[in-house]
Amino acid sequence: MTTAEAFSCQxxxxxxxxxxxxxxxxxxxxxxxxHLAECGNCEIYLEQIRATIALTGSLSPDELSPEAEEALxxxxxxxxxx
Amino acid sequence: MGIRGSLARFASRYSxxxxxxxxxxETRLLEALRAGDEGAFRDLVQTYNASLLxxxxxxxxxxxxxxxxxxxxWLAVLEGLDRFExxxxxxxxxxxxxxxRAKTRAVRxxxxxxxxxxxxxxxxxxxxxxxxxxxxxxxxxxxxWAVPPTAWPxxxxxxxxxxxxxxxxxxxLPGTQRAVISLRDLEGWSxxxxxxALELSETNQRVLLxxxxxxxxxxxxxxxx
Lengths: 82, 225
Known about the structure:
In chain A, 72% of the residues lie in helices and 0% in strands.
């Protein structure tokens, strides 16, 4: 594999989001996957990005405070009776 | 399941919201709201309030102001409900109202957003410190890892404290990055929905998501090492 053709590890870390968003042109996608198959470090890096995404997805959205909810429901009742 | 569940299913099924007209689920929700169903309104508020707040915080300088903008938005939603014709999805319509209110408020607060907030590609920001890599002119391994990442221990990754650190890292992001990563990865919106709500191009949405994920991964790496 010649280095002119292949991505460097640094380039790969800048392309992970395009890869995961399926936004890489087919040729670049193939080069990306070829690099991954040969580079354990970049494989770990991609796994860490995936873990970051999964963990973010496990966070619970901020809850509305009971006071704020009550204020909105109060407005809703006012709207309903108007 | 209730309306909240229906909305979640709606969001995942109808990700192309720009041209999307109201679905049958939304039509039922609208009917319930117009009939004054308080439970339907509560579900709607619980579904979108946190996301509205994140988006509002891009435009206005403080959390308190953002909360005001979100309250104003809900009142405007109520006022407009009878006139809403379903030419866009309810979600898109609500977020457009929010963006307009937030921009008006930002002008009143004389806050001008740095141009770069919505044009991220104009500024270089590498995913990782360049010191993590060998020199691009390295004769043998240009741009290869000098300090490679090490696998994260699963037990620590799943610990409650790691989640707290993660939430802090997201909170510390610049407003636009924080909104994009929260809507995409926490709320599970599609790229297109985020582009619509934040009026971002596809490329800029992706650049912002990339930066946000890269920064958050880095924060986790520092904590887990």
